[in-house]
Design goal:
By secondary structure, the chain is of the alpha+beta class. Helices cover about 40% and strands about 15% of the residues. A 3-stranded antiparallel beta sheet has the order 1-5-2, with no helix packed on it. Strands 3-4 form a two-stranded antiparallel ribbon.
Length: about 120
Amino acid sequence: MGCHRIDGHRDTGKVPKTVPYSESTRRRRFIHAFKGVVVSPAILYEVDLPDKEARKLIFRVRLRELPSNLDDEDFETLAEQTADRSAADIVGIVDDPAMRAAERDAEAITKDDLLEYH
């Protein structure tokens, strides 16, 4: 997974291979004393989408604290079927089905729960 600084983000109408990330939340806001304007510097980076192994790890880490009945083959399947997804997308793929499983008092999150949301 690579990362490099960019000056802006262009919408090409194609599915992006990288995701913009803003560093502005990691910096203090600067206040322009004379005009009273709040200036928040934004440094943008492009971060490549995670590869298959990274996606498997993201699923494993996100599901580590949650009850699930997933095995290695299930993680492999999930990683294969989410090739066009960012890490944030994968977190959503886990979180929403986890909430639905909790609402229906399920014992564990299943692969079908995750694939249904995907």
